[in-house]
Amino acid sequence: MSLGAPAFLWLLALALPVIALYLLKVRRRRVAVPYLRLWESLVQETRAHSLFQRFKRLLSLLLQLVILAALVLAMGKPALELGALKEEHVVLLLDTSASMRARDAGGTRFDAMLERARALVEDLGHEDQMLVAAASDRLDVLAPFTRSRLRLRQALERARPTNRSLDAARALAFAREVTQDRPSARILFLSDGAAGGVESALRGLEGASLVPVGAPAENVGILRFSARKNSALGADSILAVLKNFGAEAQEFDLELALNGATQKVAPQRLAPGEESVQRFDMALPEGGTLRLSLALDDALALDNTAFAIARPDALRRIVLVTADPAQAQPFQLAFESMAEVVDPSSLLVTPEQYAGLDDELKRADVTICHGVLPPELPAGGNLVLLNTPLPAGLPARIVGEEPNPEIWDWDRGHLLNRYLNYRDLPLPPARILEVAGGEKLVESYSGPVIAAFDLGGRRAVYVAFDMTDRLFPFRLAFPLLLRNAVAWFESEADQLLEDCYRPGSVIRPLRPVSGPVSATWFTPEGQHSETLELRDGAFYFDRTELPGPYLFTVAGRDHPTSVNLFDAGESDLAPPAATAAAAPGRGAHLLNREFWTVLAALALGLWALEWALYHRRITE
Amino acid sequence: MAAPARARPELEFGAEFLRKLEVLNVIARKIFAGALRADRQSVRKGVSAEFADHRSYVPGDDFRHVDWHLFGRLEELFLKLYKEEENLHLTLLLDSSLSMDQGARNKLNYALQVAAALAYIGMSNMDCVHLLPFDRRLRDNGLWGLKGRGQVFRLFDYLARLEPAQHTDLARSCREFIGKTRQRGIVVVLSDFYDLDGFQPGLRYLKFPRHSVYVLHVVDELEERPDIRGDLRLVDCEAGTHREINVTEGLLARYEDAFGRLARGVESFCVRNEMGYCLARTAVPFDELVLKILRRGGLVG
C-alpha cells in the first residue's frame, strides 16, 4: 500500500486525546441508591460476565482508535497495488499511425486514445511506474519509466498523430525488451487494433493486452498509384488501385490531375470490400506530377489523395561506330523507328572518324560498335558491342564459333528480351562466349551468344553475331533488340530516386551523386526548400511526414518523387476486434486506485457500531 | 433514586391536608363505628366512665352513649366519649433513615403524610397514638401518648421538622420500642425495609408482646424500575459504600425481578406471621392509600 499524502499520518497523534477522552469517559457517574446490596447480589450473579464486559469496554476504545486510523489513512490517500502489493511496470504504447487520424463520433481516434490513456495514468498506483511510447513504423519514447503522473501527463500532451504505418511487432518487441528484467510488468497497447498486426502480435504475449479505440467507419482508400513509360505504346501507363473498406457501397468521382490541372474525372462505384484497378494511358512527353484524388468525404482523408511522378521522355544520343557505313542502313532504319527516344544529333562514324571527334561529339548515351572497336572506348555512356573483339575490362571471353547457332534458352524476364522469341529465329554464325561477370541472356546449344554486363556506372551488351548478316536485319528482332537495349540502359541510368516513399521514411539517392543538392516539398503552409548536405556521395532527407510530391535538384537536374500512404492496414478502419486479451478498464484497476472512500465508509460503519455498543449501552 | 441529589421537598400540613384528613376521619368512623367499638369493648375490661370528649353522632352509633342532655339543649345528637373506653394504643413506627429520603416522590414525605393521617384518625377516636421515628435505633424525641384532635398541630409540627438520618436497624429499633412500653396495641411499621441485617428479626420482636402489627411497605416507582443506564458508581445512601456497575437493560430486568422478590418476601413474611401488609407505592396518593388500609380493616386487627 502507498500513501498519496503521507503528511496526514501526523494526525495519528490524535489517538492520545482519544485515549484521554476515553479514560475520562469511563469515569463513572455517581448515583445514590437506597439499598446497594440488592445491586451487589445481581453483580455477583453476573460476575462471570465481568471479563467480557471489560473486554467490551476495551473494544469500544479500540473501535475509536480504529476509526481514527481509518480516517487518517483515508486522508492520506492510500492505494493498493495489484498482485503481491509490489510495484508494477506498465508500458503504455500509443498507436500514432495514420489510421488514428480517422474521424469517429466526437473526434478522431487519436483524441479518444489520449482520453483513455489519461484515465490509465490516473489509475496508476503510486508505486507503479509507467513508460509512454508513441508507436508507428518507428517508436518514440515520450516518457521513460516514472512514477510521476505529471511527467506522464506531459508525455501524453506531446503525443501527435502521424501519417505513418504501424509496425506493432516492432513496438511490442521494444516493450518486451524494456520489461523483460522487471518481475511485474504489463504492456498496454492503445490502438484501433486493425492495422499493423496488433492482434497477431499480441497473441501469446503474456502480460500484454490491447486497449481498443475507435468505432466502425466508412473509408475508401488509394492503395497504389504510379506512372510508367510504355515504350511499346509510346505513352504513359497510369495505374491506380482503390478499395472500399467500409460496409456500405460508395459512389464518388475519381479525379486525375497533372501539375494541378485536371486531366480526367471518372465516376466510380465500389461495393463493400471491392477493390478496383484503374488504368489510364496518356501521352505525357513532358512528364509532371500526377495527383489522383477521390471526391469523397469518408472517415480517413489521408488516403483519398495520392501522387505519382510521370517522367519526361528522354532522347538518347547514339554514336554508331562501324567499319562499313554502307552496311549501316538497317541501323538507320531502326533509329528512325525509335525517333521518340533517339536524339537527332546521333552520329554514324568509322573508327577513324571517331578518333577525330572532339570529346563533346564523342559523348553519347549509347555507343554502338558494329564489328570493330574504336581506338579508344568512350569514358562514359553505355555500350552495345555487336560481334566486336572483346574490349579490355569486359568479364567474358570468346571460346569458340558456331556457324549455325540454335537457341535452346533465353532469359525471358530480362528487359533486353522483351517481346522477343528466339526459338524459331535463324541466327547468323556466332561466336561462343564464356561469361564470367555478366548475365547470359541468350544461349545456344554451344554456349551464350548474347550477354549483358553491369560495369559499375555503365552497362554493356555484347551480341556475338553480326546483326546485319544474312536476313537478320529484316527480322523484327533487329529493331526490338536495339530498342530494348536502349530501354535497359535508360531504365536505371537516370533513376536517382524511388518513385514513391512511405511517410516518414528517409530519402537517399540510389547511386552516388555529386554537386549541390536541394529538396523542395509542400506543406499546407506552402512550399519549402532546403539545401542538403552530401556525405560520401549521398544525401539524407527525412522530412517526409506529409504525403505529396517532393523534388530533389542534384547538380542542376530535377529528380521528382512522391510520398504516399499506400497501406491497406491503415486504410482499413474496420471495427477493432473485441479485446483479444483482457483489456484493462477503469474497473479492472480497482485495487490500483485510491480507496480512501472505502476507508471513510469503514470509519463510518465502525462509528455506528461503537455508538450502538457504547452509547446505546448494549454492552454488558 | 434517579435524582439522588434532589433535596427533599418541604412537607406542608396546611388546610388542604387537614381537609383530606377530616374526610378520611369521617369515612373511618363510618367503617369502624359498630364493629370497632364492639371489638374494643370485648377486648378491654373494667371500662371507666370518665368523660373525655364529644363527637357527632353518626348512624350506627350506640344510642346508649348519646348525650341526651346536650340533645335537649341543642337538638343535635352527640356521643359521649370516655377515656377508659378509648384505651387503644396505636403506635406508628416510622422509618426515617436515609434510604427513605429517596424516590421520584420522596418516600419519607409520603410516609409522613400517611402517618399523619393514621395518627389523626386515631387521635380523633381518642386512641392513644405514639409516633416513633427510628433509623439505626429508636429516636429519643418520639411523640408518645397523643390523644384527641387538640394535639394534631403538635403532631404536624413534629412531622414537619423530622429529618432523615442514619441507616436502618429495624431489629434494634423494635427491641427498644418493646422495652419502653408494656401495653399491647396496634403497631404500624412504615418502612422500605432496606435493612442490611434483614427486616425479619425486627418484625418478630413486635410479635412477642402480642401487638397487632401492620406493615406499610413504602416503595417508589424508581426503586421498582430505576431509570439509570451505563457505567455507574452506585453509592449506598446509608452505608456510603459503593460499587461500579455497568447498568444494562439485562441487568435492569434482573434488578426488577430481584426487587419484586424482595417485596414479595416482606409480604409473605407478614402473612406467615399474621401481620397486616400493604404495599405503599408513592405514586398512589396518600389519602387513597389510607382509605384502602381502612377498608381492608387489618389495621385494627
- Count of individual domains of chain B: 2
The percent range for helix content of chain B is: 40-55%
Rounded to an integer, what's the Rg of chain A over CA atoms? Answer: 41 Å
Measured distance between first and last alpha carbons of chain B: 34 Å
State the total count of DSSP E strands of chain B: 10
Q: What is the CATH C-level name of the largest domain in chain B?
A: Alpha Beta
Determine Rg of chain B (CA atoms, Å): 21 Å
* Range of helix content of chain A: 10-25%
Quick structural summary:
The complex is a heterodimer of chains A (620) and B (301). By secondary structure, chain A is of the alpha/beta class. Chain A has 13 helices and 32 strands.
Task: Describe the fold and architecture.
The complex is a heterodimer of chains A (620) and B (301). Chain A has 620 residues and is of the alpha/beta class. Chain A has four domains: 2-80 and 597-615, no CATH class; 89-217 and 573-594, von Willebrand factor, type A domain (Rossmann fold, 3-Layer(aba) Sandwich), CATH 3.40.50; 318-493, Rossmann fold (3-Layer(aba) Sandwich), CATH 3.40.50; 500-563, Immunoglobulin-like (Sandwich). Helix content of chain A is 24%, strand content 31%. The longest helix of chain A is centred in the first third of the chain and has 26 residues, at 50-75. Chain A is elongated and about 155 Å long. Mean pLDDT of chain A is 84; it is low at 578-592. Chain B folds into two domains: 49-82, no CATH class; 87-300, Rossmann fold (3-Layer(aba) Sandwich), CATH 3.40.50.410. Chain B has helices at residues 15-43, 68-74, 107-124, 152-160, 170-180, 200-207, 221-224, 249-272, 286-296, and strands at 51-56, 78-82, 89-95, 128-134, 143-146, 186-191, 212-219, 230-236, 242-247, 276-281. In chain B, the strands form three sheets. Chain B has a six-stranded mixed β-sheet, sandwiched between helices. In chain B, strands 1-2 form a two-stranded antiparallel sheet. In chain B, strands 8-9 form a two-stranded antiparallel sheet. The model of chain B is unreliable at 1-5 and 34-47 (pLDDT under 50). Chain A binds chain B through residues 26, 28-43, 45-46, 53, 57, 617-620, and chain B through 1-2, 4-5, 98-100, 102, 192, 194, 196, 223, 226, 228-239, 241-251, 254-255, 258-259, 262. Strand 2 (29-33) of chain A pairs parallel with strand 8 (230-236) of chain B.
